[in-house]
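User: Predict the structure for this protein chain, please.
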Amino acid sequence: MMYDYLIVGSGLFGAVFAHEMKKKGKSCLVLERRSHAGGNVYCEEKDGINVHQYGAHIFHTSYKEVWEYVNSFVEFNNYVNSPVANFRGELYNLPFNMNTFTKLWPEVHTPAEVAAKIEAERKEACIAEPQNLEEQAISLIGRTVYEKLIKGYTEKQWGRSCTELPAFIIKRLPVRYTFDNNYFNDRYQGIPVGGYNKLIDALLEGIEVRLDTDFLQDRDKYSQLAKKIVYTGPIDEYFDYQLGRLEYRGLKFETERLEEENHQGVAVMNYTAREVPYTRIIEHKHFEFGTQPVTYVTREYPADWQPGEEAYYPVNNDKNQALYQQYAELAEKEANVIFGGRLAEYKYYDMDDVIKSALERAGKEV
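Assistant: Here is the predicted structure, written as structure tokens:
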């Protein structure tokens, strides 16, 4: 059978694109090299709890059309992300807000007093032109917040000292002079009731999906099956790394079943001390307000990424961006191939941006 579109990857970009093409009467074949569809939003149900297999995925957007789109497939609950930072047993609300500051500095009580405290620390640091991430952060927020809530977490995330990281990684730091623990500023926020698999299954309903199938292992065979290819995998792998490898940061997950109803009282707890090997613990039941008698927690460990492993965060320094641009130029010359999604575009995408991008690209195909 000849298909109109061969879609490589069943994550959000591939699934949305396939759904839109099917609506327009086009035939699609989706190839997925993992044993499940959904990419990194895939959840595994355990004891009635939807465990986010590849880290916490919290849907948030200010695009009304995207919010209405996802809600047309599955109902979203009213979960609001309000993470807590744990620094050597001291607990602080995130993002940085009046709850955070009044606990860091018990002597301050008003927004004006907090602003004055931060400004005094910034002046004391006397950093005119930040040369690295540490100097950039201190020049924005002062030394106290930096040392307790930024330094250790960031060094674990990137696997190197903040003094070795470029200043541009932190262009700004969100500071709220209100008692508001809502992490996101977006208008819409929530988790699919019943987990993300319900969204992916609805998007791919009626579309042929082949799991455990690696397009790149038999590219010639699969390329002959369709008039056009939508590729959502790593762009450098598509071109057999002919210009060199792009760099990523990896993640390792350690999930544990606990015989208790409520382990940490919040879905996301960040561990900001450098000596704690993981960056955060996710307690999955809180995403859907679960009341099960047991709970599942996942410790998230940043890791050096090796080829063949799942790539999570692109290392968007100047060297990698320059290399990606070279690959992007090659991609433009590929006839009848669409490159889309975080791996094919080598960028950190929020879920709503992936969906918006897929909808726009599908719209151009009509």
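The CA atoms of residues 113 and 220 lie 66 Å apart.
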